[in-house]
Amino acid sequence: MCSLLNHHFSHLATKFPECKFLMILAGQCVPNYPVSHLPTLFIYDSGCIINSLIGEKACGGRNVLEDELKWMLAQSGAFVIDSYEALYQEGTPITTPRSEQEQEDYSDDQSDHYDNHGAEV
């Protein structure tokens, strides 16, 4: 999953040069980071985390398409796209990976156990 996202990010980086895409190996960044939380995406603006996507489901699943990832990142505040229609330009149908209720449920589950630095609470 992380390799797939890295592949998509290499393409998105050329389309959104104002956005920086960085990869850090979890084990080198946070000792004992749970593998179940991979991949983990942190979206920053002006040095502050504005959103995060934690785990496969939150990142669109094992078969996430580049355009689906682009939509999720835009919704998370990583960059701005002109419109939802812009995502259809390459002919790939876009679906959001989960409903708003599922997003809230997932977010609530994750925030109950870890603080903003990934440490168990």
TrEMBL record:
InterPro entries: Phosducin-like_chap/apop_reg (IPR051498), Thioredoxin-like_sf (IPR036249). GO terms for biological process: protein folding. Residues 110-121 have a biased composition (Basic and acidic residues). GO terms for cellular component: cytoplasm. Residues 91-121 are annotated as: Disordered. Belongs to the phosducin family. This is Phosducin thioredoxin-like domain-containing protein. It comes from Oncorhynchus tshawytscha. The lineage of its organism: Eukaryota, Metazoa, Chordata, Craniata, Vertebrata.
